[in-house]
Amino acid sequence: MSEALTIAETLRRAAEKLRAASVPDPQLAAQSLLAAALGCDRTYLIINLQQRLSDPILAKYEGLIARRAAGEPLQYIVGHQEFFGLDFEVTPEVLIPRPETELIVEEVLHLVQPAAGNHKWRPLIVDIGTGSGCLAITLARELNNAVVIASDISLAALAVARRNAARHNLANRIRFVAADLLEAFRNEPFADFIISNPPYVAARDLASLQREVRDWEPRIALTDAADGLSFYRRLFKEAPARLRAGGFLICEMGYAQAEEITALVDRSIWSEPRILADWQAIPRTIVLQRPL
Q1: Cα 217 from Cα 220, distance rounded (Å)
Q2: What pTM value is reported for the model?
Q3: Parallel, antiparallel or unpaired: strands 243-252 and 86-89
Q4: Which helix (H) or strand (E) holds 77?
Q5: Which DSSP helix (H) or strand (E) runs through 238?
Q6: Distance between CA atoms of 99 and 270, rounded to whole angstroms?
Q7: What phi, psi does 163 have (nearest 5°)?
Q8: What is the pLDDT along the chain (292 residues), one digit of tens a residue?
Q9: Dihedral (C-alpha) 251, 256, 257, 258: value to the nearest 10 degrees?
Q10: Contact by Cβ (8 Å): 121, 246
Q11: At CB < 8 A and 24+ separation, what contacts does 72-76 make?
């Protein structure tokens, strides 16, 4: 990029570079990265398209564009991602929150709603593999009387989740636990909801993932290094002993996994599974209930 370029010209050239690198939504990425470089929002760019940029800003921006062109996710470069109306810090130690995961939040809120008038009930929610903390933190905000526990095997992920909780003034509402799934929790019924977005990508499918996911997101949060079903087998077996009668296990699923995962459900332990689809009509969430 030459010196004294305007915002408009800078964005045009950056978008061309990103498009040539097969980056999705190159114009949006170009705008988001320039906003990050300037410390402003995208609206500012639109209003000030003829503003000329200094050499230090251009150099900083070129570095950001190079990172995105190489495949680094936009969210890791700018350091945050929105989820359910909240802004979350994201780092390479955690998965980037995605819209389809909001189905879990919506389902918990739907199931809690009938008892909303019972002010004495404090639903206890356990978020397994919390990552950025997006599920636990969102539910703590939405349900003022809920008790929320967030666990992860990754200490680095837990550190990100704690920062996000503090960022939203919810640190005193959430207990963070280092744990491998449910191993750290007592083997007795104490939870009303166990929720999880577990590693569900099969080892055989890793190579076919989008490069932003395959090469940058934490492998431990993506795959079980096996058939993609290991964590469901464990959760379906271990969760019933930790759930109160009538309690729910709610898990996200990968694309086209619904049939395989449903086949793992022991109907003598669980009620008939419910499958929730995302906005693209893709089965994305399985809901299991421990019978009353």
Answers
A1: 9
A2: 0.94
A3: unpaired
A4: helix 74-78
A5: helix 230-238
A6: 27
A7: -65, -40
A8: 455 899 999 999 999 999 999 999 999 999 999 999 999 999 999 999 999 999 999 999 999 999 999 999 999 999 999 999 999 999 999 999 999 999 999 999 999 987 766 668 899 999 999 999 999 999 999 999 999 999 999 999 999 999 999 999 999 999 999 999 999 999 999 999 999 999 999 999 999 999 999 999 999 999 999 999 999 999 999 999 999 999 999 999 998 999 999 999 999 999 999 999 999 999 999 999 999 8
A9: 70
A10: no
A11: 72/212, 72/216, 73/212, 73/213, 73/216, 73/217, 74/29, 74/32, 74/33, 76/216
Residue with token string 């802004």:
87
Grouping H, G, I as helix, E, B as strand and the rest as coil, residue 78 is: helix
Question: Which two tokens mark 27?
Answer: 């114009």
Block residue for tokens 């490069």 = 211
